[in-house]
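Budget justification aside, the reviewers requested a transparent look at the raw inputs and outputs of the sequence design task funded under Objective 1. We therefore reproduce one unedited record. The lines immediately below are the structure tokens for a 335-residue chain.
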């Protein structure tokens, strides 16, 4: 029985301690405390939910200010330091909230600019107290001591460098999103780009252009009278160029690199007919000074056929390669 009473007493003791800990966090010891700012921020956001027009934005604005002030106060009472620096962890949290407040929006709370400016803002928040001396009621500006200036400069400069590298990541990510064909290039001689995935052997946008162009060309040539096909081949540059521009407009419109592809044909005579090469030429930046292009060859030959009247005529038959070839270098000149 005594053991049972001890166990029950221990449970009540634990619950009492837990309640005291929660009460200490939630109930402010005085009106001027960090809990008050947090509650004001929650209250402001609740009001902004029911508000309309510009009043909603004004109330939400103050809600953010209260949240930032309360978080900064709480995290600086007993600060933890980021290992290897004198930057408090609270400054990192407060810097994130300030960055979200300054550069976020209702659609995307966390934007690339939020991440980019986060380290620099956190460093500035860490440095600000070094320029102030005194207490809450009697504070004045001061110039930090020489040894403090050095560590402030190192912290802010290193944080700005980190922001620059993060910005560089977003720039590269945007470039590769708008110019995906750059992934087919090589970065072996680059001092700042390291490829961690297997290189893309063929730029897919160039392949798409060729694959969309081929059936249209086949349709315009196959089973047509041989004389008309030869006339078509004489103007192949105009025909293929027009078709290529239409295909690029339809299939590559969402990419900025759509203006960096040029479509050209190459026509060559053979003993039995013609060879029509469909070229998708990359005119954008490349590690190869001569660039590169994609090619699919089609063989066009005359064959005997019978028209609707029963007369024998000569028509064209076309057969194209199944695979698109990737070729580094300048395209061959037009004959």
């Amino acid at each position: 029985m005594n053991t049972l009473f001890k166990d029950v007493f221990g449970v009540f003791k634990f619950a009492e301690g837990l309640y005291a800990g929660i009460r200490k966090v939630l109930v402010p010891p005085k009106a001027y405390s960090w809990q008050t700012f947090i509650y004001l921020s929650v209250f402001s956001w609740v009001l902004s939910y029911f508000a309309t027009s510009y009043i909603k934005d004004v109330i939400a604005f103050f809600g953010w200010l209260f949240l930032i002030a309360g978080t900064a106060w709480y995290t600086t009472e007993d600060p933890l330091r980021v290992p290897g620096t004198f930057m408090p962890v609270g400054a990192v949290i407060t810097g994130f909230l300030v960055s979200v407040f300054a550069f976020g929006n209702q659609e995307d709370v966390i934007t690339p600019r939020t991440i980019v400016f986060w380290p620099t803002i956190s460093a500035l928040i860490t440095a600000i107290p070094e320029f102030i001396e005194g207490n809450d009621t009697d504070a004045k500006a001061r110039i930090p001591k020489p040894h403090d200036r050095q560590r402030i400069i190192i912290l802010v400069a290193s944080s700005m460098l980190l922001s620059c590298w993060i910005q560089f990541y977003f720039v590269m990510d945007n470039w590769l999103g708008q110019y995906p064909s750059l992934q087919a290039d090589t970065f072996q001689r680059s001092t700042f780009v390291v490829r961690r995935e297997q290189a893309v052997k063929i730029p897919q946008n160039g392949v798409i252009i060729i694959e969309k162009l081929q059936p249209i060309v086949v349709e315009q040539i196959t089973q047509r009278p041989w004389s008309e096909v030869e006339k078509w081949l004489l103007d192949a540059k105009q025909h293929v160029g027009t078709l290529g521009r239409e295909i690029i407009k339809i299939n590559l419109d969402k990419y900025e690199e759509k203006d960096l592809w040029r479509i050209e044909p190459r026509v060559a005579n053979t003993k039995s007919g013609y060879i029509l090469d469909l070229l998708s030429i990359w005119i954008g930046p490349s590690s190869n000074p001569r660039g590169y292009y994609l090619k699919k060859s089609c063989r066009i030959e005359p064959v005997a056929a019978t028209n609707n009247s029963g007369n024998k005529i000569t028509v064209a038959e076309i057969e194209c390669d199944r695979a698109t070839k990737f070729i580094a270098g300048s395209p061959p000149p037009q004959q």
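The CA atoms of residues 197 and 226 lie 49 Å apart. The longest strand covers residues 292-306. Computational costs for records of this kind are itemized in the attached budget.
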